[in-house]
Design goal:
By secondary structure, this protein is of the alpha+beta class. Among the domains are: 87 residues, no CATH class; 58 residues, no CATH class. It contains six helices and eight strands, in the order H-H-E-E-H-H-E-E-E-E-E-H-E-H. A four-stranded mixed sheet has the order 2-1-4-3. It has a four-stranded antiparallel sheet with strand order 7-6-5-8. A hairpin with a 5-residue loop joins strand 6 and strand 7. The radius of gyration is 39 Å and the shape is elongated. 10% of the residues are buried.
């Protein structure tokens, strides 16, 4: 009987020692872990997060992007004389659909260099592309606009007729009219500038001598 008790006591003591050792190891492992950051475990073939793109990657992507047919076209018109801004948001004009950045910029540069007469009559100064992306492009046109009742002066600079505001100094627009396109008597008058009373008189002149 004493032998059975001794064996039972031995197994009980051994069991307690094993249990105590397990608990001690668990406490050491638990205290040693850093819970300041969430623990993430990765499995082969499984991606937890989308890859991040650097700023350079984004720029290259935008540079190679082409304008979608349903892209947003933002036109900002700045009147530098009055300091006003007029913004119009519309759908991208069909002739620009599919253009990449380089092609679109070249197209805008040609427009800036040779704007149509209707734009020059509005006092067009320049054009610049503010932003370009496949779904949205922003363009700014700068004008020095005149009121219908404003008077103007016609003058000659580098053999070309230009239009000045009624102060006789501030440039309103440069025309395509050259001196050799005008009759001799008008050339003589331009030597001392010609005054036009309003925009209608200016438009009449431009229509008469601009092809």
């Amino acid at each position: 009987m004493k032998a059975v008790k001794s064996i039972s006591l031995f197994f009980a003591t051994a069991t307690c020692c094993v249990l105590f050792g397990f608990l001690l190891a668990l406490m050491i492992f638990w205290n040693g872990r850093d819970f300041s950051e969430p623990q993430v475990y990765y499995m082969p073939g499984v991606t937890e997060e989308a890859p991040e793109f650097s700023e350079a990657d984004v720029q290259v992507s935008q540079w190679n992007a082409c304008l979608r047919s349903d892209a947003e076209f933002v036109m900002k018109e700045i009147d530098v004389r009055k300091g006003t801004v007029h913004e119009v948001i519309s759908r991208l004009p069909s002739q620009y659909a599919g253009m990449d950045r380089e092609t679109f910029l070249e197209c805008m540069e040609r427009y800036d260099e040779t704007p149509p007469l209707s734009e020059r009559q509005k006092g067009f100064l320049s054009l610049e592309v503010l932003s370009f992306a496949s779904e949205r492009v922003v363009v700014q046109k700068n004008y020095r606009k005149a009121s219908p009742e404003d008077g103007f002066y016609l003058a000659v600079i580098d053999h070309r007729v230009v239009v000045l505001f009624d102060d006789g100094k501030t440039l309103y627009m440069t025309t395509d009219v050259t001196m050799d396109m005008l009759p001799s008597e008008l050339q003589e008058e331009l030597a001392t500038m010609i005054y036009l009373k309003d925009q209608q008189a200016l438009f009449d002149f431009l229509e008469a001598y601009t092809s």
